[in-house]
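Objective 1b: paired records.
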Amino acid sequence: MTAWFISDLHLEPKYENITAGFMAFLEKPQSGDQLYILGDFFNIWVGDDFTNPYIDQIKQALKQKSDQGIEIFFMHGNRDFLVGQQFCNEAGCTLLDDPSVVELFGERYLLMHGDSLCTRDVEYMQVRTMLRNPQWQQQFLSQSIQGRIEFAQNARAESQSKNAEKASADMMEDIMDVTPEEVINALEQHGVTKMIHGHTHRPARHQIDLDGTPAERIVLGDWYENGWQLKIDEDGIELSDFDL
């Protein structure tokens, strides 16, 4: 058995190279393997009741792998936090809480999307609290699909503008990365020494001193110029990129 991890593909029709790269990637997991999608799989998601040929294509590709005996786990990101049970049923996925702990080859791993670790971005954390509120989500999903799409597009444009302001003020590096103390807190809270997350688009393996105990934070990369995957099997851990 091999466990595969990906995140931050930001799938949408205009990114044809990323879609093609994902379809090629799906040839790697074999029967008995596990595939973990740790958030921001889609660039925008306005509800399971919205579909189009592109979304159907992605769902069918995942369902085909599920039918072949690959366990697929889906975790929400900050772009696709409205993915629900209907999508997972149609795509053959299991919805995974953020955070979750899984055991692989005798080691326990804390899985997260990663945005909850970026506590120095105070404004984003306030927005995140609102967006993850079940009452807000219910109210949002009661709107028309077109209204939801327009809201998501406007919110994305505003977010990009604010991120540009942070970058111009030379604040991006510090504010938008994880807060080290939050990483330590999460590891200690869940009683683990290994963490896997995405979100920051800064793929790396970070060694951590957890009060004298060696620990590790593995960051998945986003799919833009290259794709990124994390592979864990009986031979160990391999974080690598590949051509799209």
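Objective 1b, second protein:
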Amino acid sequence: MIKVLIVEDHPIVREGVTTVLERERDIRVAGVAGTVAEGLRLAAKLEPDVVMLDLKLPDAEGVDAVASFARAARAVLIFTAYDGDDDVFGAIRGGAKGYLLKGSPAAEIAEAVRQVHAGESYLSPRIAAKLVGGIVQPGTRARLSAREQGVLRLVAAGLSNRQIAGTLSISERTVKFHVTAIFNKLGADNRAQAVAIAAERGLLSGR
């Protein structure tokens, strides 16, 4: 059974998500909170598997609390209406395993919870599309193809090769080819190093 803690300040949203998740046989809502402080207190007490965290809460920005919740639970799944690059990358850098937009279908909400609980990453399709379509610095376009830029941003978002393949509708073998090309062009030895180099050069800024 996957224990979920919902940290959301709007009662109607909390109730709606609770209803959606309680319909699933393998998911149980262990608690709900309306503030970061209350959420952290409940997380320490309940030891949830997944924390569903809104980004805009009365006592603090949720993105600033991601790391604290990540230490208290197996996974943090952002659940918000905000899809700005700063919000997305800030949450991911803080340790969030998934980013889900409010208004997502019930089945998608449940699947996102299952995926982050399983140790995988999850991005709402709209967020994935934004990342793939992001603009990087002009000087880099001669080095990285448009497809490589898209793959790089999904790598930075924490997606596995299999997940990237599914997001872009290409084979996993093709993803591996692109990742290798990115490593070579950036002079990186692994994914973490490639992301670090890309961040340092402003390739993930979206500006």
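Strands lie at 2-7, 27-33, 50-53, 56-57, 60-61, 75-80, 98-101, 122-123. The domain at 2-123 is CATH 3.40.50.2300 (Rossmann fold).
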